[in-house]
Every structure is written in structure tokens, then in C-alpha cells.
């Protein structure tokens, strides 16, 4: 009878991750049957593959033109790509890839940037939605700050100020005494 324990696929994956990311390089090399240099390369490649690239989006809202509601610049970990389109589609706001005219394509345009990873596209869209709403809020706040007060409110305020000044002024003298000061 054997004392071998059957491991679940999750346990095997956890052990592989431990060797790859946590164990000493010498242990990784021994377990995988490779040289120290190859083990270092394995760990470096794994760390780079696991790294999450920061995505920052800045949006310039425009007056809507059909579904197009703005343009965005996207910073992918230090690489900036301009001219993403902010589109309000059937399933909400998303960022469309920059494109250029191409008469040989079916649509007349060809994308100049492709994002093949769905998770990255979802992160990009989420950052784009947040940046769009933030940019619109800033525009609204700026418009409110420079918007003149409506004329009715201006007239009411001027009337109250005039009433206060008139109330503080002494009443004109009546009769001959008032005319003598001319």
C-alpha cells in the first residue's frame, strides 16, 4: 500500500506558484531540473506576466456627434496613445480604438491600436467611464462658476440694496426749511 497523497488541481497550482514566486531560486532550479540561470529567467518571466500595467485615461468631452461623445488619451504604464474615441453604445460608454482612413477595409477605417486581452479592455473601459464622468463634472462646475446670475435675481438684489440705502438716508425737509439750503 502506497502513502502517496492525491493532490487536487488547485493544490498543485498553489505549489507551482509557491515554487515559482516564493521559494529560493536554487529550490526552483532543483524542482524544475534546470540551471540557476534558467530558474532566474523563469521567475522573471512569471513576475512580468503577473504584473498589472497601470492604465490612466484623460477624456475631452465633445458635443455628442451620434454615439461619439468625446476623445481620450490613454497612458499604458508610460506609453501614451491618443485619439481613443469615447462612445456611448447600447451597453454603455466604452473606448473605441484610434483608427485611420483605409479605403481597402470594409468600414473605410483601420484600427491603429488593438487590445487583444478582454480583461485589459474591461479595465480600459472602466477607467474611460470614470474619466469621462469626471471631465463632465468639471465642465459643469466650471460653467456654473462663470454663469451670470439670472436677470430677475439681479433686479431683486438691486431692489433690496436700493431699499436699504433709501432707508438709511434721512428724509428730505419739508417746506421753506428744505428750500433754504439751496
Automatic annotation (TrEMBL):
Ranges that cross the membrane: none
Bias (Basic and acidic residues): 153-163
Disordered, as annotated region: 146-182
InterPro entries with a match to the protein in the record: SpoVG (IPR007170), SpoVG_sf (IPR036751)
Name used for this protein in its record: SpoVG
Organism annotation: Acutalibacter muris
Taxonomic placement: Bacteria, Bacillati, Bacillota, Clostridia, Eubacteriales
Amino acid at each position: 500500500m502506497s502513502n502517496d497523497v492525491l493532490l487536487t488541481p488547485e493544490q498543485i497550482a498553489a505549489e507551482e506558484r509557491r515554487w515559482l514566486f516564493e521559494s529560493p531560486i536554487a529550490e526552483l532550479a532543483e524542482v524544475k531540473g534546470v540551471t540557476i540561470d534558467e530558474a532566474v529567467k523563469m521567475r522573471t518571466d512569471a513576475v512580468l506576466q503577473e504584473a498589472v500595467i497601470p492604465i490612466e485615461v484623460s477624456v475631452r468631452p465633445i458635443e455628442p456627434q451620434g454615439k461619439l461623445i468625446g476623445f481620450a488619451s490613454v497612458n499604458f504604464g508610460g506609453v501614451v496613445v491618443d485619439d481613443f474615441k469615447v462612445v456611448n453604445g447600447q451597453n454603455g460608454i466604452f473606448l473605441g480604438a484610434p483608427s485611420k482612413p483605409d479605403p481597402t477595409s470594409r468600414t473605410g477605417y483601420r484600427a491603429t491600436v488593438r487590445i487583444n486581452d478582454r480583461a485589459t479592455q474591461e479595465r480600459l473601459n472602466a477607467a474611460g467611464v470614470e474619466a469621462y464622468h469626471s471631465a463632465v463634472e468639471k465642465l459643469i462646475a466650471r460653467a456654473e462658476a462663470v454663469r451670470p446670475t439670472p436677470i430677475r435675481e439681479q433686479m431683486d438684489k438691486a431692489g433690496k440694496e436700493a431699499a436699504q440705502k433709501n432707508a438709511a438716508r434721512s428724509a428730505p425737509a419739508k417746506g421753506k426749511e428744505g428750500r433754504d439750503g439751496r
